[in-house]
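Renewal narrative, Specific Aim 1. Our central claim is that a sequence can be written position by position from structural information alone. The example that follows is taken directly from our test logs and has not been curated for this report. It begins with the structure tokens describing the chain, in the order in which they were read.
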């Protein structure tokens, strides 16, 4: 028994799928104690869009530490926060003509989701929330209440009170007008469902199996919310910060949600950080009404500022689009022909290979395990974990991206031949 099995809780998960000890990482490569190198198609579950130890971001963080910069500041005014807010406003908000207030929440995305739910209920004086089947929003109680997977809600009896799950345009619902259904529920006095304070959604259900919402669907959802005095909350935790191409994943639909949740890659370096963007008229918090000890992670502010500076210095969005085309072509030409039962879905730099009709979760698990043996870290997602989720750092070079994809193809051939 190793020290991890002896001392660490049974709740550990990723280490069970990737059973090696890692000590160093650079760019899109992770190095283990055994001397083996792994290509990273996992990127910290989306927290490492800029890769591991990005040189420019690292230099800014190290310079800040060398100068004895403040590391922890609650919500006090600091130079690190000032610089981040100025750069975020310049590069992200003002350039898109977006008018949002920035709320710094606790260290992870679920903390910002909790803040969004709490604020929406306070603003609208209604307790209900609509979420979607297949959704994933975090592991604290409020976030669990709006997440679709009943398995992860085990032991949280009563958390889904005042939450109604609506159909997402996926699976058998693809031929069903889900927006019209929501309208019918809201307009039917006998539906048994009261008007919610907010509807929270993901433009891409990442943990839900890489399900991409259609543009028209998102536009109709926004119109529905406006017509019915319901707030629209976009959870951009995993697919924001450039993962789909633009900084925000909802930009392709030309909509402006009332609130936006950001975390994971917003800090640029994997530091804990989460934000809630709020339209100014919704910022009705009283001072200290919602807070958290680690909402002032100064190193995250430094890393986030550096990441935004880096984005300005290169053709970041165009680069993501070029890699998107490569991934789409690879999956279409090399993986789909294996079987007509395989499905692929994706956008930008998040893609899924759905094996539910071709071997299901067992084959998907065998393939990702074989990928790990061959030097590639790639995870599964979706219902019953049947979807192989490709999520590399956005900065990955094409040679490494191609090598990682070739490992996936080799793993498919190995596992299917058996």
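The sequence written for that structure reads:
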């Amino acid at each position: 028994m190793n020290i991890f099995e002896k001392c660490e809780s049974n709740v550990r998960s990723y280490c069970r799928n990737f059973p090696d000890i890692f000590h160093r990482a650079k760019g899109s490569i992770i190095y283990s104690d055994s001397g083996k190198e792994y290509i990273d198609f996992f990127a910290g579950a989306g927290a490492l869009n800029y890769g591991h130890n990005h040189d420019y971001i690292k230099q800014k963080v190290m310079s800040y530490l060398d100068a004895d910069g403040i590391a922890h500041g609650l919500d006090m005014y600091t130079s690190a926060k000032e610089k981040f807010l100025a750069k975020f406003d310049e590069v992200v908000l003002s350039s898109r003509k977006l008018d949002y207030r920035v709320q710094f929440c606790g260290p992870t995305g679920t903390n910002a989701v909790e803040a969004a739910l709490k604020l929406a209920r306070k603003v609208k004086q209604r307790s209900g929330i609509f979420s979607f089947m297949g959704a994933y929003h975090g592991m604290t109680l409020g976030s669990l209440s709006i997440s679709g997977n009943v398995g992860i809600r085990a032991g949280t009896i009563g958390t889904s009170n005042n939450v109604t799950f609506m159909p997402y345009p996926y699976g058998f619902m693809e031929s069903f007008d889900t927006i019209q259904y929501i309208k019918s529920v809201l307009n039917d006095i006998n539906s048994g469902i009261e008007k919610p304070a907010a509807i929270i959604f993901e433009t891409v259900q990442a943990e839900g199996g890489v399900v991409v919402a259609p543009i028209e669907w998102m536009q109709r959802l926004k119109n529905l919310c406006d017509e019915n005095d319901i707030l629209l909350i976009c959870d951009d935790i995993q697919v924001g910060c450039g993962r789909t191409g633009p900084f925000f994943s909802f930009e392709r639909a030309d909509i402006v949600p009332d609130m936006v949740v950001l975390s994971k890659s917003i800090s640029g370096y994997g530091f804990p950080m989460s934000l809630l963007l709020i339209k100014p008229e919704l910022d009705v918090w009283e001072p200290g009404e919602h807070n958290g000890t680690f909402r002032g992670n100064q190193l995250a502010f430094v890393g986030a500022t550096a990441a935004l500076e880096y984005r300005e210095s290169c053709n970041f969005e165009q680069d993501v689009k070029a890699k998107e085309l490569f991934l789409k072509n690879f999956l279409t030409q090399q993986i789909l022909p294996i079987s007509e039962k395989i499905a692929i879905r994706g956008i930008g730099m998040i893609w899924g290979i759905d094996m539910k009709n071709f071997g299901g979760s067992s084959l998907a698990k065998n393939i990702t395990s074989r990928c790990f043996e061959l030097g590639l870290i790639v995870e599964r997602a979706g219902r019953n974990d049947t979807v192989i989720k490709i999520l590399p750092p956005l900065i990955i070079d094409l040679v490494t991206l191609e090598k990682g994809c070739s490992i996936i193809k080799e793993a498919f051939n190995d596992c299917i031949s058996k």
